[in-house]
What we know:
The complex is a heterodimer of chains A (110) and B (130).
Chain A: H1 10-18, E1 23-24, H2 25-35, H3 44-57, E2 60-67, E3 70-77, H4 79-103
Antiparallel strand pairs in A: 1-3, 2-3
Chain B: H1 3-14, H2 21-37, H3 45-52, H4 55-65, H5 68-117
Amino acid sequence: MPKKNIYFKFDMLILQILSNRDCYGYEITSSIKKLSDGVIDIKEGSLYPSLYKMLDNGYISSRDEIVNRKIRVYYHIEDSGKEYLKQMIQEYNLWEEKIRVILDYKGEIE
Amino acid sequence: MNESVNQYLKDVKLLFPIFQKEEKAYFQRIKENILKEANYENMTYDQCVDKYGEPTDIINSYFDEMDSQSLIMKIRKQKITKRVIWTIGVVLILCIFIAFLWRIYILNKEYEDFHNSIPTEYNEVIEEIE
């Protein structure tokens, strides 16, 4: 997987996972990995910049829970986060559609 | 703190090409997160890498999230800070050197004055009193 994706942000994937249920860091990365059949393998450390930014912007919130004597930080999507996700998905779909057009280009422009 | 986790965090910190206020805050957050979430007492360095990624990945993602304008501003700010520190350093060294030369001059002058004040000839005058 390329280190830097050019037309979508990890925010979109994280928020999509969180829109189904609250998760802690490892759950987010493992869900992404499972759902993409291992193609998108993001480590937890790479999630932090996105998570912190979304926490600061109020798109998500966090809470600490103690599970098996370990503290787990659970993330929860807020209403503004749902709106942000909707915008990102629209933008992504538009990009995907246009990229598909370019890839199908056979040398003729109408 | 577990030595491996400590080393991992050190490596992450060392890899920041710039370490200003925002980077310090970000690093502090990561550190707290790792220490809070991980069962760090039993974690090896490889387990840290497996869970959180290579230290370089953490740095890459941090700068990926940053917009290029603020990154340019940060680099420019660091350049200016470096230049100011260098200028102050050079001026300070020059001042110390000039003060040192002035002190040598003063000491030399005092020595010469003292040396000149030592009489080298004695004139003995014998007067006859009537």
